[in-house]
Write a structure and sequence with these properties.
By secondary structure, the protein is an alpha+beta fold. The protein is built from 21 helices and 39 strands. A 12-stranded antiparallel barrel has the order 11-12-18-17-32-31-20-19-13-14-15-16. A hairpin with a 2-residue loop joins strand 3 and strand 4. Helix 10 packs antiparallel against helix 11, helix 10 packs parallel to helix 12 and helix 18 packs antiparallel against helix 19. The longest helix has 19 residues. The chain is globular, with a radius of gyration of 33 Å. It starts with a strand and ends in an 8-residue tail after the last helix.
Length: 894
């Protein structure tokens, strides 16, 4: 038979394989209250075959107190009228207790059976019954919930928590804890431990029915506290928006011992008020245990709605220092700073949106100004506010640290208010950025192991249910030589379709004809010789990679050649110069020296990056963790569980950026991406548009590269000259796609706005395209001899002195691109107001006209004149520049 149970910890109660009746008793919050003479009857059926010799009856219950004294509520239990136990008293105390009884086979009948729990007439108090179950006789410590019957009804437990310092008598409020862990077997955890992405760790044990927990916690800064909590309630997933933030994984068990085994689903949610969890360890009543390490993911641009913010206000700001609330919407080093140790920030969106995840980023100095306690609220009228998410005792481990917070998003609001009720001790509050998302980032999967009681551990892997692979896409890391050959052949075909000649300069005709960017596989003797030289056995997936191809070309856009077996070696020996440079990093976050001393170098030539394997981080199936070190990272990149998973992630990233439609065989995909990005930009969806233009640029679209850089200039004009120099003036595809006239009208003046002000030396020969754009000057201009003596191409050269360069820049008069009649009239009026010093009135005119801006050219997405015309230098501030491109324009205006 399958277990019969009644679970009164959920409202309404849940029943499995049976029905219940109440007589003079009633459900009370998360339990059933049975008074004197009251009873509950549970009906269950046994088939007509051989009846069991014995069943196990388990109760989880406690007796209600009588004032400050213990209550007394004895019970009688019968099955089909046969006494199981009489006048039994559940041991007293403040916590539920679990008790088990044997039900003899002679009390059972084929067909319908009735279990009765009755309160004795002389009881002085209530019996609080949490759960009751009847199952085949075996040693059991707790009710099994039979989640396979109705898995959608399992609940999320919410706990009110506290912590205190060791030796202290004072418990202080801590963030709410949400817990749900279900492998599809219906067994609740009795112990649980987890680690957050910031390094904070907690370990707890649960009371029966998970009504309370006790444990300890170590914060990211090393502070150790006792940790306890009391159950506030359970939220059935079928009725709860928490289902939207639940991590769900398709799993394979047994992959560490010879191939895939048991397949089922793992559902996991641990929300303790801190960053997302990256590792979880648990044990259940049967002695089974498991551990998983999650593969983190960033929220995609499709989930971010920060661009919809049209206005941000604060209780105060330091306008004289430029530390205003508007800076919170920028991806920059600027910040918002307000007076006092309490503050509020309000964000008004263009339309109502259900925000379910937000990111706060600490500012550049004075940790005592960081927010510590706050509540996020939502409103649709700006007056009546609903509490959405509350946090207490939060902290930021370092400066410019982004931290994400997730909550159940059930309602769309147009206004969001962050009320900061306490900071970290100073008399000012600051943040550098606030970002809003509709959903939290979902882990892409996990690796780990699972161990059943009395058995050896086995491999345990999972893939996010939401990570549904596209047709033809990579479905998992290759492990065998055949899987590697198949994976690399598909990857080669994609790269050969989209890469240009410069990127394929080392690929010979034979490799092109074969569609294979690799080489002959290394024979077993070569691999064994490498292992003997290293003094260790190679991880399985890298070993089979070498057998499939002894080295590789263009394995990612930034990694051009992988080492063959004969040159693979420890970083300190294979590339001592690089080793001495990258192991000597500095800064508070640098802790990779030991790693660099032991790392295995498997890459040969790339764009300032190296691929490394860690022999000290080994999984149960022998895989070594894999990393990319690059000069643009502050330290190591993301951890990958194996070399194979690193290759798969790089391939997925490449295909997502460059080959989505190409893999599907559709022509003209770069043009389609440019059109899609332009529509997104005109709708004000800046981050989505930037990502789309980047995909088009990777595919070789000069228009995509140009439009992405122009859009980025509105977000950060101070950095625009760097992007224009490398991404526009240095790329002949841009000139071919956009044309010299538009480059002179938009790109050149954008570049000069910054470069001409900041330049401290000659421009250099790499600015040949800009040299063609700028006018030639006669000899002796401004007293500069030979100022017009440029190279034949018209380019500035290393020999040109700074004065000549500045003179040419000053003489440049960009052409004027045509604007619509309505917008041109607004420009003329705004200029006149700006000339009189009425900058705010000038901006009001421009802001009112922005929705009406439109252009038929597919290569214009915003009025760049607002950034390049000196008349608007004081009018269009960085915050207002961002407002220009986040305002829906033309056919997309609202």
């Amino acid at each position: 038979m399958r277990a019969t149970f009644a679970d009164f910890t959920i409202d309404p109660p849940r029943f499995g394989n049976g029905t219940a009746r109440y007589i003079r008793c009633h459900p009370d919050r998360d339990r059933l209250a049975i008074g004197a003479g009251g009873r509950v009857e549970l009906d269950f059926a046994l088939d007509g075959g051989e009846l069991p010799e014995q069943l196990t009856l388990t109760l989880i219950a406690r007796v209600s107190p009588l004032g400050e004294s213990l209550g007394w509520a004895p019970i009688d239990i019968t099955v089909n009228g046969h006494a199981v136990i009489s006048r039994f008293t559940v041991p007293g105390g403040a916590r539920p207790r679990e008790v088990a009884f044997a039900v003899p086979g002679e009390a059972l009948v084929a067909g319908l059976n009735t279990l009765c729990v009755r309160g004795c007439a002389e009881a002085r108090g209530l019996l609080w019954l949490y759960r009751i179950s009847v199952e085949p006789s075996r040693i059991c410590a707790r009710t099994h919930l039979m989640a396979e019957e109705r898995p959608a009804e399992a609940a999320v437990c919410a706990y009110r928590t506290e912590w205190r310092a060791p030796g202290s008598a004072e418990w202080r409020p801590a963030p709410r804890l949400l817990v749900h862990l279900d492998r599809g077997e219906g067994s609740l955890p009795v112990r649980l431990a987890w680690r957050g992405q910031d390094g904070a760790e907690a370990s707890i044990g649960f009371q029966p029915a998970m009504t309370e927990f006790y444990g300890h916690r170590r914060a990211a800064d090393g502070t150790l506290t006792e940790y306890r909590g009391v159950l506030e309630g359970r939220s059935p997933l079928r009725d709860s928006a928490l289902a939207e933030v639940m991590h769900r994984f398709r799993t394979v068990e047994g992959c560490g011992s010879g191939g895939p085994g048991l397949r089922q689903e793992l559902r996991l949610l641990i929300e303790d008020g801190g960053p997302p969890v990256e590792r979880v360890i648990w044990g259940d009543p049967s002695g089974h245990s498991g551990t998983v390490s999650l593969l983190a993911a960033e929220p995609g641009p499709e989930a971010e709605v920060t661009d919809l913010v049209t206005k941000v206000r604060a209780h105060s700001e330091f306008a004289e220092a430029g530390e205003v609330a508007e800076n919170l919407l920028h991806d920059s080093w600027h910040k918002w700073l307000g007076h006092g140790d309490r503050a509020w920030l309000e964000f008004t969106l263009r339309r109502p949106v259900a925000v379910g995840h937000y990111v706060l980023t600490s500012a550049d100095d004075v940790p005592g100004r960081d927010p510590k306690d706050w509540t996020l609220k939502g409103s649709n009228d700006g007056e009546h506010w609903a509490d959405l998410d509350s946090r207490v005792e939060e902290s930021f481990a370092h400066r410019h640290q982004p931290r994400g917070f997730t909550f159940a998003a059930t309602t769309a609001y147009r206004h969001y208010r962050l009320e900061i009720t306490r900071n970290a001790g100073e008399d000012q509050i600051q943040l550098s950025q606030v970002r809003l998302f509709t959903s939290a980032p979902q882990p892409k999967g996990f690796i780990g192991h699972y161990q059943r009681a009395g058995e050896a551990p086995t491999g345990y892997r999972g893939t996010s249910v939401s990570a549904v692979p596209e047709p033809g896409s990579v479905t998992g890391p290759p492990r065998t030589v055949e899987q590697w050959r198949s994976c690399l052949a598909e990857y080669s075909a994609t790269i050969l379709r989209v890469a240009d000649e410069d990127e394929l300069s080392e690929v010979d005709d034979e490799q092109r004809a074969a569609g294979w960017l690799g080489f002959e596989g290394a024979d077993e003797e070569s691999v064994l010789a490498l292992e003997e030289r290293l003094g260790t056995r190679l991880p399985p997936s890298y070993r089979t990679f070498l057998s499939a191809s002894d080295g590789w070309l263009n394995i990612s856009p930034f990694m051009w050649r992988m080492r063959p077996a004969k040159t693979v070696g420890w970083l300190r020996e294979a590339d001592p110069e690089t080793w001495s440079v990258i192991r000597g990093g500095e800064g508070e976050d640098w802790d990779d020296t030991a790693f660099m001393d032991r790392a295995l170098l498997v890459s040969e030539e790339g764009d300032a990056q190296h691929w490394l394997l860690d022999p000290a981080d080994v999984s149960e199936d022998g895989e070594w963790a894999a990393y990319i070190w690059a000069s643009w990272y502050p330290a190591l990149g993301d951890r990958h569980a194996s070399f194979a998973e690193l290759v798969v992630e790089e391939r997925k990233g490449f295909e997502a950026r460059a080959a989505h439609e190409v893999r599907m065989g559709r022509p003209g995909t770069a043009e389609d991406l440019v059109a899609e990005g332009r529509a997104q930009a005109l709708r004000g969806e800046v981050r989505k548009a930037m990502a789309t233009f980047e995909q088009a640029a990777v595919k070789g679209s000069g228009a995509g590269a140009y439009l992405g850089i122009v859009l980025g200039a509105f977000l950060d004009i101070s950095a625009a000259h760097h992007w224009i120099r490398t991404g526009i003036l240095g790329d002949p595809r841009v000139l071919e796609a956009i044309g010299m006239e538009q480059l002179r009208a938009e790109a050149a003046p954008l570049y000069l706005r910054c470069a001409a002000e900041e330049w401290t030396g000659a421009p250099g020969g790499y600015l040949s395209a800009l040299g063609d754009i700028l006018p030639r000057l006669p000899d002796g201009v401004d007293g500069v001899v030979g100022a017009g003596g440029v190279a034949a191409s018209g380019a500035a050269t290393e020999g040109d002195d700074t004065a000549a360069w500045m003179a040419r820049a000053a003489a440049f008069a960009p052409p004027v691109l045509p604007e619509s009649r309505t917008f041109q009239q607004a420009l003329d009026l705004a200029r006149a107001l700006a000339d009189r010093g009425a900058t705010d009135q000038s901006w009001a005119v421009l802001e009112a006209a922005l929705p009406h801006w439109h252009c038929d050219s597919p290569h214009r997405i915003a009025p760049v004149v607002l950034l390049t015309d000196p008349a608007f230098r004081e009018v269009v501030t960085p915050a207002r520049a961002r407002r220009v491109v986040t305002t829906p324009r033309g056919e997309f205006r609202e």
